[in-house]
Amino acid sequence: MTQKSPAGGSSKTVVLVLLLFLGSWAAYAQAPTGQFTNSITFSPLWDFGGDYVLTNEWNSVSLELVHHANGQITGVRTETFNMNSPRIYYEGSAFDNGRVTSTAGGVGFLTSWKGTVRGMAGGVSFVGSKTAHGRWTVVPSLLALQNEGTCRICIRGHCESKTAVYQVPLPAGMTGNWNLEFTIQAQGNRLTGSAVVALSNGRALNYSLRGQYNPKTQVSTLHLIGTGETRGTAMLATFAGPQMMLETLRGTVLGQKLRFPDGPF
Question: What pTM, to 2 d.p., does this model score?
Answer without folding.
Answer: 0.84
